[in-house]
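Researcher: Can you fold this with protoporphyrin IX containing FE in place?
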Amino acid sequence: MDSLDQAQLVLTACGTLLAALLSYALYCRFFHPLAGIPGPLRAQFGIGGWLTVRGAKRDFGWELKALHDKHGPCVRIGRNMVSVTDPRAVDDLYKFGGPVKDKAPFYQFFKVTKPSLLATLPHSQHQLARRSVSPAFAMNVLLDLEEYVDTCFDEICEYFDRQIQKDGGKATVNMGDMLQFLAMDAVGEIAFGRSFGLCKAGYDTEQYLPMIDAYTASSCLSGTQPWARPVLHRWITRKLGSSGAAALGQKASQAVALRLEEMRKAAETGDDSGLRRDMLNRLVAAKNADGSPFTIEQVKVQANSILGAGSDTTSITFRALLAYIIKDERVYRKVMSELDEAIENGTVSFPISQAAGSKLTYFQACLKETLRLHPAVPWVLPRVVPAGGAVIGGRYFAGGVHIGMSPFVYQRTDVYGPDAEVFRPERWIEASDEERKAMEKNLLTFGSGNRVCIGKHVALLEITKLAPSLLHRYRLRFTPRGPSSPHKLPGRSVDGKWDDAEPWHCESQWFAHQRDFWMDIEERAA
Ligand code: HEM
């Protein structure tokens, strides 16, 4: 073949490729079932990558909100993916027995070594798996949890007191990390049979935090481009570190082995009084749908996934709640006078029980408002439209389309009134029973329907007990930014605004993580 023929061959190949790409782009823009739905151009033309860029830049929530503000309740965010904010879609997408059932493949990389609950995509398989795991989240497990959470609180207080004493009455602490240690230690107590000891140590002894961050960030990013998973995963774990994974795997193995041994001894002696009635206990005793017992590997997968799902989420919410309360002196004073009054009239005593904390009406309204405005998971919760298509939010979608709602964007729409962007706890108190029911239904922070967060009551229990306890014991203030402050990142709010008055640097990917959250802390005058 002479050089002219070769050049012609290359030209023809390039031309064919270009024509194929052009036809594909035109198909996506004009003939795809989602054609005509507005959105970023690269989603319209099927090039994709909008979600991947958001995942990599961690600016998802506010960028998606800007798209909805511009285009309305239905936005195409991928070749085959749509985000909706129509209130009717809550039932259409998430309701028990609703038309849409399976999760989108986006979730597949949230598996541990085997699919966890979160990463089980088909509805039928998920139902069976959830039935096996749900005894671990039963009410009596929760009640026993109170005692372990109290121990974790004592340990974090000992750490704070040490720092306060060391620094002459007032200490500057990394509250962001400390609250995650608190959530991790509590999850450790219930899912691994013992605390990780992080509150006591006051630092991340095994580099767990970067490892958990790498796991979530990589799962989310890979979900947007499954074919690029190996590269994305390697990039993120190298960037953020994954050394804690080995330590965690070892902890899980040790915890399960120890518990099995304790259960064997109890069965042998007929005395199970020393056995803890925690989640690990229930997981070890769990059975699969065919009646076979959970394998050790299954128990470890569930325990690890509980850690992955339960520690970031709880600490993000805890940080946000403290910040909303402390930021506004009016709100702070109302929370404190309700608490002080409850202590005075004896309805609250220490350690604060879940039951007593739940009766602090104004505090609970602050918690609700925090869950609404700063949902730990701002990402869309995507599902697959079943074969044959379905009407979602008043619009027909073809089978196979991926579609979901973002708690962050939806909870800032006018379903919560014209002041939806404002932190106003009173809205939960002023509402009639019917209005409150609608507000609860529209709160997607824990998901909804058959996939609703199974650990919701664990998280609410921890925060209900611990946040008032912390506020009662210490006077907390944001550490002012300045050349000598420990901050490393510029201030950024949960809605993406750069502002050095913000107490943290907020990110928005699968999680709405707050980085660099420092607080000045001193004992509160009685
Ligand atoms: C404030 C704290 C929390 C928030 C905001 C939260 C939020 C969520 C969300 C949004 C989902 C996914 C729903 C979906 O994909 O449709 C979820 C699922 C899940 N969460 Fe939570 N979560 C929290 C705390 C916890 C805790 C403490 C645990 C464990 C102790 C936990 C365990 C799980 C599990 C296992 C799933 C998967 C459930 C399933 O698919 O059946 N979460 N959570």
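Model: Folded with protoporphyrin IX containing FE in place. The pocket of protoporphyrin IX containing FE is lined by residues 117-118, 130, 187, 305-306, 309-310, 313-314, 317, 376-377, 381, 445-447, 451, 453-455, 458-459 (CB under 6 Å).
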